[in-house]
Amino acid sequence: MFCTSCAWVIYASSRGNERRRDEEWPVLEGRAVRSSRLPGGATASFLSLLLALIWLGGSRGEAQDGYELERMRKAHQIRAQVLGDSWSGGELAEAGKETTTEERSELEAVLRPSRGELEANPFFNLWRGEAHFRRGEEAEAERCWAAASTRAGDDLFIHWLLLRDLIGRKHWQAASREIQKIGDLKAKSGPIRLPMMALVTLGLAGDLERERAFTPAAELISLAILLDPESEEARFAKARLLWESGGLRLGEVVREIGRGVAQLRDDEERMQVITANFLSALIWSLLLAFLLLVASLFVRSEPLLRHELTERLRISLPPASHSCFLAFLYLFPVLLAGWGWQLFFWTLLVFPYCLRKERLLLSLLTLSLVALPPFYRYAASVELSRHDPFLRAAREIEAGLYGKDTARWLVGYVQTHAEDPLSRFYHALLLQREGRLEEARAEFEWCAQHLSSRSAVHNNLGNIYFRLGRYEEAERAYRKALELDPQIASTHLNLSLLYAFFPDRLRLEEAQAEFKKAEALEPGITSGIESYREFPGNRFLIYQGVPPSDLAARVRERTTERDRLARSLWGGRIRFLSLSALSFLPLCILGLFWTSYWLRGRVGIARPCCKCKQPCCDLCGVTTEVGLLCAGCYAAFFSPQVRDPRARIERLLSQDRNEKGEKLKIRVLSFFPGGAWFYTRETGIGLIHASLFLFLLFSLTGAGEVVRSQFSLSRFFSTPWTAGHLICLFGLYAASLVRGWRWST
Q1: Helix axes 339-350, 358-369, angle to 10 degrees
Q2: What is the pLDDT of residues 665-686, one digit of tens each?
Q3: Structure confidence by residue, pLDDT tens digits, 573-599
Q4: Dihedral of alpha carbons 61, 48, 32, 406, sign
Q5: Ranges in the chain annotated CATH 1.25.40.10
Q6: Domain 118-270: CATH superfamily, name plus number
Q7: Which fold has domain 383-556?
Q8: What is the reported pTM?
């Protein structure tokens, strides 16, 4: 076996250099077969790899490992036959002219199994079912998938492949049965981690979650936890699903978050980020509570201070600027770029509303500003990845679930952010998975210059060199990756594969040493690599993504970029200084409070009286410079000492005239409890009232973001925070209107 392996390695290397380097094994990608046949050099190389790995992995049981590798090799050939690809031994026969007749006939016999062997093979039934489904023959497809499930026996990987197909076809009952089988098999196999299977399973669960299919998503997340019990992402995903699927299952949410945090204890960097965010949110909420307390005590000691402050501010502005100033109050949160300005604005809004019943409502709204969501950084990255083109594409590429939309998002982002190393990195990953190796090489080489401290970049660049036949450069890239991080098992395994292919001499001792290092660093990685090789676009090499901390850093960067998309506070895109993603909602409500208070006294300047030609108070008739009400009337009706302002207003309205004998034409509308709007003969305030409601509705729905981005209203209204704010806001609005119209004349 060893001699045969050496011969095939040397011959495959010489033949492979003469052929196109970008030809790959035929695998399904986007439901289409990329190539119709296997090149002879690649066939020989792959056979030599199989034989070498069988020899290298002898410590784990030569017979079992040989069966597994042979099964994977047959799977490629069976897939080609089932999906209608031409397969012949012609190229293999041509490539093996120098081999003996016995060896050639033996290889052809292995590569061309009989029909009975094919029907007994679960891979054959799996991909034949896929072929039937593509032709619209669903009944035949289901029969083939059932046969594949039966013939798979205890093969965990085949059941998992079948599960992916069933989920993609939305066969929920059959998928649920496969999940149960996988769970039973995993329980029998013992504590073996399958992190890559778990990662793709989480990606499938995320897609179902976005489609509001919570039940199958929950089953998939539970399966991901079973496949990789040490995955903190799976724990956080389960907590998020429990939170978003409705029902007050707070105990389960907290328990899953605790398990996820327990998995993070070894990751000091991420734990520091989570701790820092929690402390910043706590300090922020305590600071706001302190400011509210101080403002409340100060205003209570000066009953007329609220009125005097707002009136002095209004009369100091030109009359023509009042409308602009009101618009500025609403648009100001969008323009904020620093925490100091936000603190100033919130204080400005909070200051006039620290009296009586309004304090309770205001406290609740303020608490919603600093509500720390669970699993803060993870939730932020997931939420942002749903709307941000780069992060959404990166997430799908990491999970191996990419398509045309992924390429469109990422290519568009790279065109506008050509100097962004992370986007170029994922673009290179996408290119290599599409088989565009030369373009991927150029991108990875650029990333190696700008992300030189990331071992994943050099590892992936080494893989590209390997597939292009540039073995010396591949070795240098792998060595550079190991210098940066010697604890990466996948790089050791890639280097082991490279040594088995090395053209000038067989370096099997070095290959075995690297293989053992990979096993020691990550037990079971060889079974994972066999499974990972079956994913669309991946072969026998392991490609690495960037660490999760890099994506978390990108989330923080995107919240402070100068472009409109990243800085926008509309649509729940960002989390700024540990604030809730929907912090714009209470800001709008506080702005509405401020405007309602502003309009209690007057809209615009005070208008001259019809007799004295001077601005007069509409209640007492005293000349005033500030609007409809003088300071005395305002204090009489709205100071904290007034127990029942409604009775006073009704008594005054029943007289129908003021002290000057003028007939009053006043309508009272209590927009919020404890406040009143005074309407004069002009109808402008009615228009302002309608515009406030429309503007508030516009801001809540995020209609402005629908045109500018991938924002979805259905996703926006699906979160509990949004639903809670909407219910409270419109409930208050409706109650105030009903109460106000009862007061109106």
Answers
A1: 170
A2: 443 333 333 333 333 333 344 4
A3: 333 333 333 444 444 445 455 444 444
A4: positive
A5: 118-270, 383-556
A6: Tetratricopeptide repeat domain (1.25.40.10)
A7: 1.25.40
A8: 0.34
